[in-house]
Amino acid sequence: MSMETLIWVAVVVVAVVAVAAVGYVVLQQQRRNRLRARFGPEYDRLVAESENRKEAEQELLAREQRFSQLDIRPLAPESRQTYAKRWTEVQERFVDSPAMAVTEADQLVTAVMAERGYPTDDFEERMSTLSVAHAATLDHYRKAHDISARAARKEASTEDLRQAMVHYRALFQELLEEPAERQDRAGQDHADHQDRVEHQDAEHHRRHDNTTGR
After folding, report:
1. Mean pLDDT of 124-138
2. 164: Cβ–Cβ under 8 A, 6 or more apart, which residues?
3. Closest Cα partner for 160 from 104, 99, 86, 91?
4. Could you tell me the CA-to-CA distances from 206 to 6, 15, 75, 114 in Å, in that order?
5. How far apart are CA 39 and CA 46, in angstroms?
6. Which of 105, 110, 114, 102 is nearest to 86 (CA)?
7. Which of 29, 30, 50, 156 supports an S-S bond with 150, CB 3.0-4.6 Å?
8. Residue 64, Cβ neighbours under 10 Å: how many?
């Protein structure tokens, strides 16, 4: 094999390796963007708590895998109505017995999760599973659970308990929704966000033009 041929072979090998490396980086970035979009704040929280980003992303991928093996199902219409009525009753009891109402709210959320097919034996397992499909309200559930634990130790104020009810309600309402309703709401939230961004950009340009005299 001539020297010129060897050079061309080397060039081709280097080019193939470079393309493969670029492809790997692109795929990694696409996966990272997808995980960040799906898990939201939970992605950032897990990255901050892990030794490195790769470890956190592997955990999130494992959560997706475990979630795919569950039989998650929507509530029957009659169940939705029953749970909605029970929530109204719990809210009404808050006036006279805030701590008891928070405890009942926690139990009600857990009952809905169980009927839909979510694991409920362990709180951390609940959080891990919920993060896949309910990342937007996961922090609400975490805060509500923390207040509920403090309430059990008589360390929560009435305002704390009121906040716990608000946090529980955020997840409760999402668990009751049909997938199509959640998708429509998510789409509307995205549209509202885009409108706010466009409005802010327009306001920024207006102020810039006024400053420069254009």
Report:
1. 93
2. 102, 105, 143, 144, 147, 148, 151, 156
3. 99
4. 62, 48, 49, 52
5. 10
6. 105
7. 156
8. 15
Percentage of the chain beyond pLDDT 70 is 70
Tens digit of each residue's pLDDT (9 = 90 or more) over 74-129: 999 999 999 999 999 999 999 999 999 999 999 999 999 999 999 999 999 999 99
| 3-state DSSP of 41-89 | HHHHHHHHHCCCHHHHHHHHHHHHHHHHCCCCCCCCHHHHHHHHHHHHH
Instruction: Tell me the C-alpha distance between 48 and 91, whole Å.
Output: 36
